[in-house]
Fold:
Amino acid sequence: MKLRNLYVKWQVWRGKALDIWSKSPYPANVLSNLCSNGFRFDGVLCGSMEGFLQSLKYQDTGKQRQICSMKGKNAKNMTSTHWQTDQIVWWKGSAINRQSKDFQDLVRKAYKAMFEQNERFRIALMSTRGIKLYHSQGEQNSYKTILTESEFCSILTELRETCDI
Structure:
């Protein structure tokens, strides 16, 4: 086990951190992208954040809507790596560079929509105030994953600290 993972486990044990994972106890499981936290984004029904994120890998808008509506593991099973070659993802027919500010803005807006519309997610996130968020299962390299641990945790922390609902 990596030294970092031991540190995260120690911080969680001390009550100073939360390691977000679908198989963890509440609230970490509800904050997982695999959790069925439904919301509507940009006119599209999303069955989970995983559904939204996996849908970005597909250019076809019909396929994208289908994947968006999926929950958890069903959405995760739709993963694809073809976007990694040119780092282009898609939203509603528009190409977006995975490494761009436009991509970051799009994903942040989707999380904000989920935060505003899904009470279970919002309550779980707000219950973590004062502790550091981790996703030790997550990939660190933005060229290999649709959302890195750092991006994921910073979005959640930003929502938690700046949104008053």
In short: The chain has one domain: 3-160. The chain has a mean pLDDT of 95.
